[in-house]
Every structure is written in C-alpha cells, then in structure tokens.
Amino acid sequence: MITDLFSLRDQVVVLTGGSGLIGREVVKQLPQSGCQLVVGVRDTDRFKAQLATNSYPEDIARPVCLPLDVAAPESVKAFFRALWEKYGRLDALINNAWPRTADWQAKFEDVTPESLYKNLCDHAGGFFLCCQSAAEYMKGQRRGAIVNMGSIYGEVGPHFPIYEGTDMTCAGAYPLIKGGIHTFTKYLATYLAPWNIRVNCISPGGVADDTHQHTAFQRRYIAQTPLGRMGRPSDFVGPMLFFLAPASGYVTGARLQVDGGWTAW
Ligand SMILES: NC(=O)c1ccc[n+]([C@@H]2O[C@H](COP(=O)([O-])OP(=O)(O)OC[C@H]3O[C@@H](n4cnc5c(N)ncnc54)[C@H](OP(=O)(O)O)[C@@H]3O)[C@@H](O)[C@H]2O)c1
Fold first, then answer.
1. SS3 199
2. Which residue has its alpha carbon closest to ligand 1 atom 32?
3. Tell me: the pLDDT tens digits for 132-189?
C-alpha cells in the first residue's frame, strides 16, 4: 500500500527540543503516523502541561516525555537507557534541540571564548552525543533512522542587511555549528550504513516568530525568499516523516533544504 510508505506504525521515535517553535508542532502532528513519540525534555512538568493542550485521536499513542539535557553527557546516556528499558526498541531520533547561551545574539566582535565554547559544546556536542547513544541501540537492531536539524546558515552566509536597525543577528557560532552538523550527517551516514542506520539532515530557513522577531526583519527576509513567506513550524513535519519512513529507505547522507528557496539563488 502506498500509505505504508509514510507509516511509522508501532515505531519508537525520539524527539529533542519538543517544547520549541518547531518541536511543538512535531509533537502535535507526528503521532498521527502511528509512532510512539518519546520527547526528551529538561522540564518534564512544563512539557506535560504543554501536552495537555493538544488533543489526539483515541487510536493513536500519545507522546510521552523523559528527562534529557543534551548538554550533559550523563543525562544523554540515562535518557537512552531509560527509553530502552521501557520500550526495548529505538527506531528513530530527531535531533532538534537548540541549546544556546543568554548572549547568543552578541555581535561577532563581542563573543567571548567561554560563550563560544559553551555554544559549540552544548549544541554540536549535544547532537553528537545523542547520535552516539542512539546509534549504540540501533546497531543492535541493525536498523534505524536519524534526522539532524541543520540550517540555511550551515550552507550560506547571512545577508546582514536584513538585521539592520534591529537587535537581531545571526550568531557567529551558528554557521560553525550547523555547517558541522551538515557534514557530520554525511560522516554518520557512511559510518552507520553497515548497520542499516540512515542519517539525513533538514536545513530549515527562518521560521516566523512574532514574539521574537522584528517586523522589519520579517519583511526583509520575506522579500529575499522566492516562495514569498517565512517558514511555518508545520513545514518541517512532512520532511521529517519522509526521512523516518519507508519512503526514504534508500536515502542516507542527504540534506533537504526546507527554506522556501532561500538557498536556491
Ligand atoms: N527557528 C528557526 O528559524 C530555525 C531556522 C533554522 C534552523 N532551526 C533549527 O531547528 C531546530 C529547532 O529550532 P526552534 O526554533 O524550534 O528552537 P527553539 O524554539 O529555540 O527551541 C529550542 C528547543 O531546544 C530545547 N533545548 C535547549 N537546550 C536544551 C538542552 N540542553 N537539553 C535539551 N533540550 C534543550 C528547548 O527546551 P527548553 O524548553 O527546555 O528550553 C526547546 O525545546 C534547532 O536545531 C534550530 O537550530 C531553526
């Protein structure tokens, strides 16, 4: 059946960053594919309150959460151990968390070494450690799928005039991290292929966020985007499902730009 191509029925899928802008939408929609979504969160009570605002059909598994701080190596290990003890399988990982320091928006000239190292370590390191732990369990099953969230800024430089007159910028650490995540995806794709573990990357463009973005920035961003709008959190659910599902069974090491054409010119 062609619908089976996009079914994750009975699969156990891990998501990080499930309380964020994009993650919240994944938590709402992905369970409809039939999977048991297990969301790794720092604050389980806050996440349960978020979950209580969602409604799910009765015949699908509601998402659950387990404690996870991707920036703490012991927490990463404990999360995957607890997941394995509870479900005895791990079909997929979506690396989507975005740890960042309070001074993330500092100008390039003002970034301190401490801030730089913390961002590199927590964000890129968090992706690395989650892949490492997940792969350990997936290797035993000889099957698995990993999706890493990259960014347009892992591919192209920012067009800085879009930030002019606002307190927004693209942090200097971001391309360093996201470019690394793009290449790390290819590394893992070839490294884990013998165990039938596929590793792919989604490269999102800017997502509209009215609470944190200036309207001038949004207007300029849209003017540079061929499809004439910023991203919506729901734009990423289909690409994630594709990379996790049988439909992409022969796809590994790919990077899919989901950016309205931002990087097409
Ligand atoms: N938004 C965009 O325009 C955009 C564009 C390109 C790429 N992306 C990428 O897409 C992904 C999701 O972005 P987003 O905008 O949805 O992010 P977001 O709204 O800032 O949310 C970040 C998420 O990461 C979690 N997180 C932060 N530090 C963590 C830690 N140490 N351990 C576990 N979880 C942690 C946060 O949880 P708490 O609730 O605990 O803080 C939150 O759920 C990121 O990888 C980002 O780089 C986003």
1. strand
2. 69
3. 999 999 999 999 999 999 999 999 999 999 999 999 999 999 999 999 999 999 999 9
- DSSP state for residue 217 in the 8-state scheme: H
Q: What is the rounded distance in angstroms from the CA atom of residue 164 to the CA atom of residue 6?
A: 42
**Best substitution site from 41, 75, 98, 123 to test ligand 1's pocket, by max atoms within 8 Å of Cβ?**
98
Burial of residue 13 (CB within 10 Å: 0-12, 13-18, 19+) is: buried
In the block, tokens 């509870």 appear at: 86
**Which helix H or strand E contains 262, and what residues bound it?**
none
Give the model's pLDDT for residue 3.
86
Residue type, 120: L
Say yes or no: CB of residue 99 within 6 Å of ligand 1: yes
CATH number at residue 56: 3.40.50.720
Percent of the chain predicted with pLDDT > 90? 99
pTM of the predicted protein model: 0.98
Amino acid at 180: G
Quickly count helices (H) and strands (E) in the chain: 8, 7
Distances (CA, A) of 220 to 152, 204, 223, 224: 16, 17, 5, 7
103's enclosing H/E stretch is none
For residue 80, the surrounding DSSP H or E stretch is helix 73-87
- Distance in Å, CA 20 to ligand 1 centroid: 5
Q: How far apart are CA 171 and CA 104, in angstroms?
A: 6
Atom of ligand 1 nearest to the CA of 40: 33
DSSP state of 166: S
232 ligand 1 Cβ < 6 A: no
- Domain interval for residue 164: 2-264
The total domain count for the chain is 1
* CB of residue 22 inside a 6 A radius of ligand 1: yes
